[in-house]
Amino acid sequence: MPFCVSHDGAKIHYEITGNGEKELFFIMGLGVDKRGWLFQVPYFSEKYRVFLVDNRGVGKSDVPEGFFSTEDMAKDILCIMDKEGVEKAYFVGASMGGMILQKLGAIAPERVEKLVLACTLAKLDEHEKELMKKGLRFVKDIDVDKIDESNIKEYIKLVIESDAERIFNFLSKNIFSPQFLEQNKELILDFFRNYLNDGFKVKGFAKQLYAILNHDSTEDLEKIKSKTLVITGDKDKMVPKEKSIFIARRIKNSILKIVENGSHAFMFEMPDVFNKEVDKFLSEN
After folding, report:
1. How far apart are CA 72 and CA 63, in angstroms?
2. Which of 136, 191, 250, 274 has the most other CB atoms within 10 Å of its CB?
3. Which contiguous run of DSSP H or E holds residue 229?
4. Residue 184, CB half-sphere, CA atoms under 13 Å: how many?
């Protein structure tokens, strides 16, 4: 079970599968470990040497004592690359994973061959903040309007004290489409049940949330030099497609793809569509 000790001492777990000549990293979003890519691994491991990372805070990676940023998580990836002798690689990131990769593309552009940013954003605005308030109201049954928005740590403290199952109930209602939820209840329940029993940590989730709340890559996007696919769904309730349009307009060498009827978790709901679009992009000269 490989680990890398990152710049601040945090132990980061990762897994390598596939025997391809080129390296491809998958970076998952808020609160989910490498298992979130279960529909991508069989497909891409046939062509690539696939790296699956447990972001700090989830899975088998450490939950550091203090708070951390998306740039810290980008440095975790560089740690793995250095340890494994990977000079340059392809990267796919979803939601928070896309935020991490925006930072990676800005601080180490020479290490990025191609970049895929899925259903992600450069900075939170009122839409996401309001959604988080609704989430806290759902998991804590409190009047969130009394929380001082400027005191992010107060908000995070309440999240840490929340019930894990209620967190995932709220998230599932916002990341999946209603049709998928209705038709795949058992699949989703099994996935989350297994994850809650082995890998999910409320404290780690809350600290990742802190990193997201403080994330701002609006000035970093122009520093990204690699060819980039910005891909999102037009039915994403968590991160509206306008956020991807904003990113694509600011990364010079980018392509924008909006998937019809795609939810926030369309790589999970529509893996054939997602895999085909990503594979096509990575395979092009």
Report:
1. 13
2. 274
3. strand 227-233
4. 16
* Residue closest to 142 by CA, chosen among 155, 129, 152: 155
β-pairing, 112-118 vs 227-233, is: parallel
Tokens matching residue 23: 């390296």
> Mind listing the pLDDT tens digit for each residue in 124-152?
887 777 776 666 665 555 555 655 555 66
Which residue type does 126 have? E
Is residue 111 within 8 Å of residue 89, measured between CB atoms?
yes
- Left, alpha or beta for 156 (phi > 0: left; psi -120 to 50: alpha)? alpha
What pLDDT score was predicted for residue 181?
85
Alpha-carbon span 22 to 45, nearest angstrom: 10
Give dist(CA 105, CA 200) in Å, integer. Answer: 28
Rounded to whole angstroms, how far apart are CA atoms 283 and 285?
7
Give me the residues paired with residue 15 across strands.
Answer: 52
Rg (the chain; Cα; Å): 18
